[in-house]
Amino acid sequence: MDPLTEVAAAARDWHGRLLALLAAGSGDIPAAEDALADAYEAAVRTWPEQGVPGNTGGWLLTVARNRLRDRWRAAEFRRTVALDVERDAPAHLDDVDVDAIPDRRLELMLVCAHPAIDSALHTPLMLNTVLGFTAEQVGRAFSVPAATMATRLVRVKKRIRTTGIPFRIPDRADLPARMTAVLEAVYGAYVLERSGAEALHLAEVLATLAPGDPEVRGLAALVQLSAARADARIGPDGRFVPLAEQDPARWDRVLIERAHEHLRVAHGSGRLGRFQVEAAVQALHCSGAADARTLRDLYSILNDLAPSLGGGVALAAVIAETDGPAAGLAALDALAGDGFQPAHATRAHLLRRLGRHEEATAEYDRAIALTQDDAEREFLIRKR
Amino acid sequence: MRYALLMHHHEPADGELDAEVIAEAQRAFDVYAKALAQAGVLLSADVLQPTGSTTTVTRRDGTPRVQDGPFAETKEALAGIFLIDVPDLDAAIDWARQNPAAQWGSIEIRPVSTSFLDGGWTR
Q1: Which chain B residues touch A81 with a CB distance below 8 Å?
Q2: How many CB pairs under 8 A join A and B?
Q3: What is the rounded distance in angstroms from the CA atom of residue A207 to the CA atom of residue A259?
Q4: How far is A32 from A23, CA to CA, in rounded Å?
Q5: What is the pLDDT of residue A89?
Q6: Chain B residues within 8 A of A164 when measuring between CB atoms
Q7: Per-residue pLDDT averaged across B61-86, rounded?
Q8: CB–CB of A84 and B120 under 8 A?
Q9: Average pLDDT, consecutive stretches of 10 residues, N- to C-terminus, chain A (384 residues)
Q10: What Rg, from alpha-carbon coordinates, does chain B have?
Q11: What share of chain A is helix, strand, coil (3-state, %, to 5)?
């Protein structure tokens, strides 16, 4: 890897961990973000000349920590805010061993999910601060203009500092309520970035933290089962390969085994939830012998537990397998799926199977126009 | 951090509450204030007279004006202020939850921005 690629990789791998650590003392996320941005800039300047350091995360933390300290000492800052050096200085950073940087991302995620923060911003905030998605990417995922999302994120980060929301794992009584928002965010990361190593890692961290929570286990299984098929999803020619045509030999057996272990524990609790059902669907796909009737039952359960547009489209697709394309199309028409890419892609496939070629072509055009992923777009253009 | 716990609720009219209800509320506030004091977080506790006794002062248009009545007429009125010093918002929320007035109104938690202490402005 060349030094600049190394900087990008270090930023991706370390961003959430370093930000959580830098912001923990003062609760000041914007200041931590500025310090971290300075560290990336210093890396871009010095790594090509002096070589890439052995511990990239430790290097970035040291630079960012010094920047934060400079900021605290700066005369300008002292003039605007009366400073209690004893209480406000980020002294806790001195105790951090840069060679073994602790993972405080979960604390930062729980800060983002605090009940004093507008719940509509819980997931966007986590995706932005912990996972490093830009305001533009987050805005796109939530169908909000980039500038609007950026403004909301800036405002809420300021609010975290001024209201004094603490950076710590809350008590047992408060954890379950916030865990739901954390699970949603990890799921959001997984949806935004299908093979996301971040989503994988965070789901594992959550499972370690709350091993008895069946939905945490369900989410870990779901993310692992999806990641297990990431390589098989792209063919040797770089093209998207749909599930039915994938080569099971290219699926990651270790990940699948670990996912099954999570699911066994989850089912043992006897409390069914949305992520467990979604994971069960994925597990069925990974078994290589997905029975359409079983799939339909699972999607029906999912639709009852947590109705969503995506789940409704998936249910319509399996109804087409068990009861024929006309029944599938009827189920699809019952949904309000206008402008939802998977709805258009599924409708296109079903219309084609019913021999309604002109309508199918028009639907393929809509689906292609709404597709973000290059390989998937290629696939739809070929089907069209 | 210093937080003001602002109690807002409907103002009972004269004679609307029985003596027993009032006595019960007074007992609850006594227990609450003593708990805050015992925890070492209480800076001050003030229960306010009803809004009918408010006087509002402004100099917004240049001339000083003194006016009878509250700044804004609302259904719920500011009824009292507890000023506390606790480590973070979660601790403030915890104390606000235990405030007796939370049963019949709402408690607004407002962080203090700056305070005049020992002859100077501090954080």
Answers
A1: 123
A2: 34
A3: 11
A4: 5
A5: 57
A6: 1, 3, 87-89, 92, 111
A7: 86
A8: no
A9: 88 90 92 95 95 94 92 66 55 77 86 91 90 87 90 95 90 80 84 70 82 92 91 84 86 93 93 93 83 92 90 92 93 86 92 93 92 84 88
A10: 16
A11: 75, 0, 25
Return contacts of A95-103, CB within 8 angstroms, 24+ apart: A96/A21, A96/A61, A98/A55, A98/A57, A98/A58, A98/A61, A98/A62, A99/A55, A99/A58, A101/A14, A101/A17, A101/A18, A101/A21, A101/A57, A101/A58, A101/A61, A102/A17, A102/A21, A103/A17, A103/A20, A103/A205
- Does residue A170 contact residue B90 with C-beta atoms inside 8 Å? yes
Closest Cα in chain A to B2: A164
Contact A277, A305 (CB under 8 A): yes
Global pTM?
0.75
User: Cα–chain-centroid distance for residue A179?
Assistant: 15
**Residues of chain A found within 8 Å of residue B1, distances taken between Cβ atoms:** 164
- Among candidates A81, A116, A163 on the partner chain, residue whose Cβ is nearest the Cβ of B123: A81
The order of strands in the sheet holding B76-85 is B42-47, B76-85, B2-10, B105-111
* Inter-chain residue contact B88 with A81, CB threshold 8 Å: no
Residues of chain B contacting A, Cβ within 8 Å? 1, 3, 87-90, 92-93, 109, 111, 113-114, 120-123
Closest CA to B99 of B87, B89, B109: B109
Q: Name the residue of chain A whose CA is nearest to B123's CA.
A: A82
Q: Would you call A137 exposed, middle or buried from its count of C-beta atoms within 10 A (0-12, 13-18, 19+)?
A: middle
Sort out which chain A residues have CB atoms less than 8 A from B121's CB and list them: 82
CA angle A58, A62, A67 (to 5 degrees): 145
ipTM of the complex: 0.81
**Mutating which of A78, A163, A165, A175 best tests the B interface, going by the most B Cβ atoms within 10 A?**
A163
Strands (E), B19-98: 42-47, 55-58, 65-68, 76-85
Has residue B123 got a pLDDT over 70?
no
Length of chain A: 384
Would you call B92 and A164 a contact, using CB atoms and an 8 Å cutoff? Answer: yes
pLDDT value at position A75? 54
CA distance A266 to A255: 17
The span from the CA of A376 to the CA of A373, in Å, is 5
Q: Strands B65-68, B120-122: parallel, antiparallel or unpaired by DSSP?
A: unpaired
